[in-house]
Write a structure and sequence with these properties.
- The protein is built from 11 helices and 7 strands.
- The chain is an alpha/beta fold.
- The protein has 2 domains: 9-191 and 231-255, Rossmann fold, CATH 3.40.50; 262-296, no CATH class.
- The longest helix has 21 residues, at 149-169.
Amino acid sequence: MQTDDKSDQSVLITGANGGIGLVTTKLLSGRGIHVFAGYRGADTVNSFEGLNNVTPVKIDVTSVDSIREALNTITQSGRTLKGIVNNTGLSDYGPLLEMTTESLERLINVNLYGVHRVTSVFIDLLIASQGRIINISSIDGILTQRFTGAYSMSKHALETYSDVLRLELEKFGIKVCVIEPGSFNSSMFKNNIPWIESRLEQIKDSRYAQETSFVLENSEQIIARQNALPDPSVVGEAIFKALSSSTPKNRYLVATADETERVVKHLLKLLSEINEDHDTALSKERLQALVDKILI
């Protein structure tokens, strides 16, 4: 997206009514980019009150009909769609083996299939404008930890989806970028507390009773810790860079120094595991040469 003349340029942001989505809506609209701000519930549209350069658009990423209605709204506006920010997401918490396939499907239906539905419906507009696709992943799309497996699975899948999409859309001049936030103040976990509590209540006598009871008994403290996390404005800045740079990166990790070190250590350990104890393993010298070449 060029930033010198933005008079008719626009971006669609899904899940724009809170957290990273709302911060990014305010940032982009304040810099002259018209934002079609996606929201789902009628009670959340007031999040955009008082914002200039913003058009609220109702969009449910689990419904192709809803996405097509949003497409019609944007097409009829006469503005050039230069980018979509696939931000809508759900979280979940609990032991993976205690989750039903329905629980897994609920998460993946939004975090992965929702991105695919939106991208598929809007792709013709993006090809016409040689626009950008920005997918909001997570540090959990790289790392894994106990009891967030379902969420992490969905984000790992989104990383691969984005990589393939980048290769397949290169011929059309479309850039695909992934944003990988660490821990920030977000409404996603808070919005899902009722669902998480109801599901954990059903498995409170499972082999993971101690861990699940902790969440059930301390949800208010967990939310308080979430509220104390840093403001996600730096994530919005990364999204702006991905949209506006003439040479955007494939990935933007937005994390603390400690989180960044965890990611790098994990990737190095993965490299070591892949390369060890087989006939075609690369030598340490060859690995160092490859690293030096990549980091230039």
